[in-house]
Amino acid sequence: MGWLLRAATLAGLIVIGCQPHVPSSPVSPAQLRIEPERVPAVENRFSPFDVTYRLHNVGGRPLKIDRIESSCTCLQIRLPSPLIMPGDNIRLTITVEPRKLGVNEAVIRLFSNDLRTPVVPIKVQWTSVADFQIEPSELDLGIVAPGEQTCGFLYVRSDTELPELQLDSTVFGASVERSRINRNEEYWLIELPQQDVPGRHRGVIRCTPTKAKARDFQVALFWNVADLLELHPSAAVAYFDPSMNRWRTCLELRGPEASTVKITEMRIVSQSGHQWEVDYEVRDSAGGKLLTAFIDQTATAGDVPRSLAVVAVTRLGRFDFSVPFYTMNVRTQP
Question: Of 133, 162, 320, 324, whose Cβ has the fewest other Cβ atoms within 10 Å?
């Protein structure tokens, strides 16, 4: 009986030893998945806000966030733990402290032991709007004669009470005089000091809400410094030309920019505000441009006094002239 038990045991050992070896399944490496893939841009009014993500480990081994880098110090990052076990997830919170008005963007980068994507960027976008508006956003101060000062106005308004604002300028000697209309509106008088350097210039008025951390609400200023055109003589005297049955007068534009001038309009303006367009010719002269205006008799009838308005455009901008207009009862020779 003993020999039978030993034989059965040996047979079982042989059968067991003959079964094939089945290897265990390999464990997949750690793998990071971020949800949501994209967060829409946030609009805010200079107040901190949070953007949250979920970090998932969809791999088979523990996921470790080695470090997080940010492109902007305006981002504060909170992560409960750098370690995420397989199948688990944790919350990543990004607190944004706005510092600039307008559209903003920052990027953080997650470095982990995910072999497929060891570095994953996360883009954060937001638009910061002020509690007020300044109009216009660009102020063109026109043409300034050398040695002269110039000024312009800005209108500031808010749907609520205007916040505390700090102003400064990149233009040396510029001043801003604020006139409060009511709790929601102001006018700003921008005054620039004497201008001596010819050419086109640019400056900036910076406006900083005191609760903000940067001076990024800006109004651009533009102006040209140039010798002004002069219109001679100081009054337009017209003589009647019977050959044309019209009045005729001659004026001359003088100045460094006279060679580039283009006359876009001439008209007679009466005391009561009536206006009549005027035909004209432009010719080169030794001093600049010679303007000959032809005025119909209807423009010389009615109320007096009258003026002759001339609009000239050069590469530096627009010039408007207005001189008194008189008629002489002396007929020119045909």
Answer: 320
Q: Do 128 and 98 touch, CB atoms closer than 8 A?
A: yes
CA distances from 289 to 22, 32, 232, 262 (A): 103, 75, 10, 9
Q: What is the pLDDT confidence band of residue 66, given thresholds at 50, 70 and 90?
A: very high
Instruction: Walk me through the domains of the chain, giving residue ranges and CATH numbers.
Output: 32-128 (2.60.40.10), 133-225 (2.60.40.10), 230-331 (2.60.40.10)
Structure pTM? Answer: 0.41
To which H or E segment does residue 12 belong? helix 2-18
d(CA 282, CA 253): 10
- Per-residue pLDDT tens over the stretch 297-315: 888 877 778 899 998 888 7
Going by pLDDT thresholds of 50, 70 and 90, the confidence category of residue 219 is confident
